[in-house]
Amino acid sequence: MNTNGNTYTVIYSTVLVVLVAAILAFVSMSLQNKQNENVKLETITKLLSAASQSDGSFTIGEDTDVLGLYAGKIVEAFYVDGNGKKVRDMNTGKENVNSIEVSTTADLKKQNDLIKQIENGQTDKLSSMELPVYVFDINGKTVTVIPCYGAGLWGPIWGYLAIDADGRTIDGAVFDHKGETPGLGAKIVEKSFCDEFLGKTLNVTGETVFAVVKATAVTEPEHSVDAISGATITSQALGKSINLWAKYYMPYLSEAAEANAEVPAVQDNIAAEPAEGTGTAVQTVGTNINEEE
């Protein structure tokens, strides 16, 4: 074959392209499991960071056994639909940390696409949603972590909000992005910005559940934080994402808050109930426990 001819050049280029593509595909497939593991570790780290933000009893470093810490702190993890009904459970790794299941950003994107469809009127898809819920025990305190996801200025942005047992108060917040502007929109990952969410509450009665707005535009400071200076678009996008996702979590959060509020009420009733033929209510409780044993 004439090595100087066009035919040789075309064949050579084709073989080279196919060979390179095959090598890249092989490498990608070989590293897929490692990539998935790294994504899971990153997600778990952010979940733990959000859940523990208001507590500060532990920190996550390079030497932290993230999987073991998660398995020790998580109470339950599951998915709910847009009506707040539990769909299915996630593996929490109590028996095997390597089997821990979490919802990655790719999964969040799928749910965000569903949310867009529902917002456009396809309400029949509410029951098709699978919104992840993570319930942690942080030193005896129940904290529920929920995610949010949306489009920023240059790419997707996402985050995790830790909600108190009352279903309203924010106990922690962690955010991330794919390509926001360094020094501007990228500041959503900084601790100083995330700390602003602590103690704020979700609005369970108004049209806007939560907002990220300029200080001059704040009308409900308890349900909002200040936007990042010079990063208006990213701030607005984050606020929109939080507000939209929180709206679809609200049915579950409200129901869970009611259930949590009933527990102490039941205990108070037991303690206050007088016992027939005994001196105190405490004796009655003790007697009943002994009888059951």
The chain-level mean pLDDT equals 85
Helix content: 40-55%
Strand proportion: 15-25%
What pattern of helices and strands is seen along the backbone? HHEEHEEEEHEEHH
Number of domains: 1
Classification by helices and strands: alpha+beta
Largest sheet: 6 strands, antiparallel
Q: For the terminal residues, how far apart are their CA atoms?
A: 93 Å
Enumerate how many helices there are, as a single number.
6
Poorly predicted ranges: 275-293
Number of strands: 8
Principal-axes geometry comes out as: globular
Widest sheet: strand ordering: 2-1-3-4-5-6
Radius of gyration from the CA trace? 25 Å
What does this structure look like?
With 293 residues, the chain is α+β, with helices and mostly antiparallel strands. It has one domain (38-269). The protein has six helices and eight strands. The protein has helices at residues 6-52, 66-73, 105-119, 191-194, 232-272, 281-292, and strands at 74-80, 86-89, 131-138, 141-151, 156-163, 170-177, 211-213, 224-226. The chain has a six-stranded antiparallel beta sheet with strand order 2-1-3-4-5-6, sandwiched between helices. The protein is globular, with a radius of gyration of 25 Å. The model is unreliable at 275-293 (pLDDT under 50).
Task: Give the helix/strand layout.
Elements: H1 6-52, H2 66-73, E1 74-80, E2 86-89, H3 105-119, E3 131-138, E4 141-151, E5 156-163, E6 170-177, H4 191-194, E7 211-213, E8 224-226, H5 232-272, H6 281-292
Parallel strand pairs: 7-8
Antiparallel strand pairs: 1-2, 1-3, 3-4, 4-5, 5-6
Helix pairs in contact: 1-2
